[in-house]
Amino acid sequence: MKKIVLTGFRGTGKTSVGRILAERLQVPFFDTDTLIERRAGMPIPEIFRRHGEAAFRALEREVIASLRDAEGVISTGGGAVLDPANVADLRWHGTVFLLSAEPGVIYERIAGSDRPGLTDLPPAEEVQTLLARRREAYLGAADACIDTGSRTPGEVADLVLRGAGISPDDAHERDTLLERFGLSALGEMLDRDPGLRVCAIAGNPCAHSRSPLLYNRLFAHFGMHYHYTRFEWPDVETIIRLASLLPTKGLSVTIPFKTDVMRYIDEVDDHAAAIGAVNTVVRCGGRTYGHNTDWLGVRAPLAHRRGARAVVLGAGGAAAAAVYALISLDMDVLVLARRPDTARRLAERFGCRWGGLDEFKGVDVDVVVHATPVGMEPDTRSLLAPRDLEPGTTVFDLVYTPPETPLIRAAKEAGCATIPGTEMFVHQAVEQFRLITGIAVTPALVREMLL
């Protein structure tokens, strides 16, 4: 490992573990808090008292940027990874370990410190609050997570150097599943390079997905030692089992598993729970965390149509994300599906109107969001014809293969404003990449990587 980075809350052992690792590896040790104090010419509590947290964070950003190409062990401050720019610098040709502990353990370890509080809360409550607030950033920025609560610094250092490892029985099961999935080469890659991390698109089918192209280019762009592949299989339980046998950091979940996958996830965030679908799984420390970024992929391109009258075609996981997004933009939403009963169930969850697809004609609508697989290659159908659409309507087709779907062609012929599914893919990918890696990317960079 060229660069080992230790992140986590105060009191999780970053400095102690970092010094042991540096000594064992005979490499330099960098403590970002110490470097900040040297640069400022005063201790951190004094920086906070004189100049405030913003000044401290600016110094922290400068110090971490200076370590981008460093070789050695880096121990970071507790809030360093809240800044995605810091994460990008720390991840550059480095391996990031999140050191964690229970709030009570942390509180006992840091009691009596002269570091100022970051909130007005009592110390024990502040620890719990900040841990919850930072968890998403901590998990995203990490390649691996180690609980230090009941371990000595030396034992934690052993785990960092040893890596996750895999038992002979698990290795046999892993290789058997990889062979079934047609991914034997991935097992060979991991045997040659145990430090490699894995991400994948999970679906059936998912051969059409552009996620492997996008992610592998982004990983190379940010100097990350990751490989993105496809887990295409008829049942999601087997996919999740395979992911658990690999050094998997994240999954992009697509049809037909966005709802079923929730049964196998340890924690689901509020947005995904409300939508009833997960399209992003983050894995760290043996636990899985479910999110939904599809709704943001729908919301961002339609933000300028706030308050519009909208129709969502479909009633599956993508449709649920679309309804959730449109409601967040104060739109009046009508859900239409081939089976009216499925439209009703979705609509009633969000307090919307509903009906069958045949009820589209005659509807006065400003925005149409198509959220079914119809029109996805090799399908050449469209649920709507040019005569069904009015000029000036905005038509957003969530299907992105091909880039111009039959529905988008029909909408253009009718004089509608169109939004291709690639825009949903781009905007949801921006958020998904942040959740999985802790790095912020722009829609422009994602588009560039897709060319």
End-to-end gap? 32 Å
Helical stretch tally: 19
Question: Can you tell me the CATH superfamily of the largest domain?
Answer: P-loop containing nucleotide triphosphate hydrolases
Tell me roughly what share of residues is in helical segments: 40-55%
| Shape, principal axes of CA atoms | globular
CATH secondary-structure class of the largest domain: Alpha Beta
- Please describe the biggest sheet, giving its number of strands, its sense, and whether it closes into a barrel: 6 strands, mixed
Q: Estimate the strand proportion.
A: 15-25%
Q: Please give the number of β-strands.
A: 17
Poorly predicted runs of 5 or more residues: none
pLDDT average, as an integer? 96
Determine the CATH topology of the largest domain. Answer: Rossmann fold
**Which radius of gyration do the C-alpha atoms yield?**
24 Å
- Please list the strands of the largest sheet in the order they lie side by side: 7-6-8-10-11-9
Oligomer type = single chain
Q: What is the architecture of the largest domain at the second tier of CATH?
A: 3-Layer(aba) Sandwich
How many domains make up the coordinates?
A: 3
**Content-based structural category:** alpha/beta
